[in-house]
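Exercise: predict the fold of this chain.
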Amino acid sequence: MWKRKTPAEMLESTGKPRKRVAFSKPKNAATKALIGKNASDSPLLRLPIELRNKIWTEMLGARLIHVDYFCDGELKFKDNEDFCSRLKYSTTTFESYGSAWRHVVCQDDGPEDRPDAEVIIEGGHEQHDQAWSIRPHGLCDTDYEERDPALPFECYGHETMRLAILRTSRQVYVEANEVLFTTNTFSFKSPVALKRFVMTRNIHQKRLIRNLRMEMNWGAAFLDIDGWNSSLTMATIKSLSGLRSLRLHILHGSVPPLSRNEARRTKWPTATTYCEGLRKLSTLPIVQAEVVIKPDCGQFQFELWNARDMVEAAERVKAMLENPKGLEEYTEAQQVRKEALQRERVALERFKAGKPRGPIGQN
């Protein structure tokens, strides 16, 4: 089976690095002939497509993959990539390595509403043992570690995706790439990671994504909320046209914004800043949404914002995401908002010009 050259091999043979472009059909006869030869001579590629898909799924699919992006806000995108590529040094190959991307295959996947695990940490001299509450996937963050390419996977305590199979041939790339993006669930706790992940996929890969998981923090600081709202733009969401399943794990530890009756009357939080980005996601034909709202670690539950209220708020968010008329309602709401802003703009111009305000409803 023919194997594509690595970037290092391409640089050594031609003196030029291989340009990264989206996958396209072969254009010359020699490449087409090589692809045909691989398909006819390879024992793997001669198997029925149903068996090959099972092989790709066993190797690359049906997993929950936590994805993170190491980002220095003071660096540009390319400079950040160059900086991360020199973060580590291998004592085996005597070369620098690294990547801005981090990922780990979750070994403890389960329902989002499962209770937190309790871990007992033994105390030292004259200290008492301490019980720590660990939220689901709370320990997955500690497994982000850049892997030395010269060391085997078994040297690390966590599983990562083995994507080298995608470089063996075009046919393998096409078939396995589809399994990779359609059967896995990609999990993000950072809005920057989600934004960069979508930006660096090609159009076909974006459309293949079926499952996403996001972990948001609705704490007292609005930095995380603003980050998610700015990352979940309409351009980003429209590119994810194949998304069908969404898992949301929301941590909320701030003071309750409303009383219980007022929260129910106003359908909090679906109409607030908290769900600005999620309202855009409701424009997609999502058929399955799993939403859980839990108190943030170290926060206590208020009398006006208890577990029952969190469940009701999660149900409202779930209904919004699974609404089959989400696109129509969002478009209508945006039109109403646009008209209201236009009226305010006209009223402001009249006020600056010293003219009397027009009749109610015409300002």
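Check your answer against the key: The beta strands are 64-69, 88-89, 96-97, 101-105, 117-121, 130-134, 185-188, 211-217, 245-251, 288-294.
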